[in-house]
Amino acid sequence: MPDASDTKRRLRVLTLVDRLGTSGGGEKLAMRIATRLDRERFESWYCASRWSGGEPATEAGRRAVEELRSAGVHAIGLGRQGARSLTGWGSLVRLMRRERIDVLHSHKFGSNAWGAVLAPLGRVPVFVAHEHTWSYEGQPVRRFVDRELIARRSAAFVAVSREDRRRMIEVEGIAPGDVTFVANGIDAVPAGDRERVRSELGIPDGAPLLGAVAVLREQKGLDVLVRALSEVLRDVPDARLAVAGEGPERASLEALAAELAIGPRVMLLGNRSDVPDLLAGFDVAVSASWFEGSPLAAMEYMDAGLPIVATRVGGMPDLIDDGVHGRLVEPGDAEGIAAAVVDLLRDGERARAMGERARERRRAEFDLDGTVRTLESMYERLVAERGRAS
């Protein structure tokens, strides 16, 4: 007679997101988790509801799908066209029933709300909701949905920073026992080619390069960063700024740089596949966001050993102690950002020491393997409590 351990099947985990993990920290982390689950214990499914399921139009999309499939993940798309689209939800419910999915793990508000509705319809015993950036001031409907739908339906509601968890409890009124803090993590950033990227960008020898990796949207405070560069140039006239990423704010950022007469010093690079090289080319990394969860880009700056200037929002104080791993300033404070940047540029030894301490902290406390192992243990515990997996 076979041993019981021989007949126990792997837990089936379905990750639900809006888009393929080609941009945006939450989407990237969701995909990385799906690809890294222990294949001896878990069967991984991944649903990007706004992907058609066919050949992606971009090279980044094609790489993402190849990464998923190479890792043995079942990757599916539903072809939804917008937040209110119902396309594909019926087929997903049927799939969850047919494949007997044990855990539905959704990421970000829209997928969390849909997941709360779909999990019971799909007869999924464990629903895990993952909030990547809490930013619902002035949005009572979203707070209501978080509290009355997502929190009530989920077996675990994950926050990526202690500050997000605090707000979900104190502002939204979610019970403390219903919100779990799980730290984000990344893999080590490969060594980059500083000389290659600076040559490509036309950075003169010795000219300081400020940098950011961010989607060009209002949340990221990139207009504040452009204004900060204008202030930096008063003290460091050969400084430049490079931003890797794309988004709806491109035109307004270009217009602002022109208005401030610093257009040639601001380089909006679009989406890039050579982020390690870019990080190696930066002298100071800046995060000027108005709100954040626990940004993967900041962890990449840390791992690259960069001195960092960041706004004191969300989970940033969990990553950076002011004056130890970088500098923290208030959101919207262009002059404060500029002063901190100039201070780091003028004291290179201190800046390098901050970067080294930031790298050590990232590798000790914010590693992707640790994030995945924590979630794996959560899945197994919750399924054991709520059934299935047999």
Order of helices and strands: HEHEHEHEHEHEHEHEHEHEHEHEHEHHH
Radius of gyration computed on alpha carbons? 22 Å
What is the rounded distance between the termini? Answer: 17 Å
The strand count comes to 13
Low-confidence stretches: 1-6
Written description of the protein model:
This protein has 390 residues and is of the alpha/beta class. 45% of the residues lie in helices and 16% in strands. Strands 3-2-1-4-5-6-7 form a seven-stranded parallel β-sheet, with helices on both faces. Strands 10-9-8-11-12-13 form a six-stranded parallel β-sheet, sandwiched between helices. Helix 5 packs parallel to helix 6 (140-153) and helix 8 (194-201) crosses helix 11. The radius of gyration is 22 Å and the shape is globular.
What is the fold's blueprint, element by element?
Elements: H1 4-7, E1 11-17, H2 25-36, E2 42-48, H3 59-70, E3 74-77, H4 89-99, E4 103-107, H5 109-121, E5 126-131, H6 140-153, E6 156-159, H7 162-170, E7 179-181, H8 194-201, E8 209-213, H9 222-235, E9 240-244, H10 250-259, E10 266-270, H11 275-281, E11 284-287, H12 296-303, E12 308-311, H13 316-319, E13 327-329, H14 334-346, H15 348-365, H16 368-386
Parallel strand pairs: 1-2, 1-4, 2-3, 4-5, 5-6, 6-7, 8-9, 8-11, 9-10, 11-12, 12-13
Helix pairs in contact: 5-6, 8-11, 9-10, 9-14, 12-15
Summarize the structure.
The chain is of the alpha/beta class. It contains 16 helices and 13 strands. It has helices at residues 4-7, 25-36, 59-70, 89-99, 109-121, 140-153, 162-170, 194-201, 222-235, 250-259, 275-281, 296-303, 316-319, 334-346, 348-365, 368-386, and strands at residues 11-17, 42-48, 74-77, 103-107, 126-131, 156-159, 179-181, 209-213, 240-244, 266-270, 284-287, 308-311, 327-329.
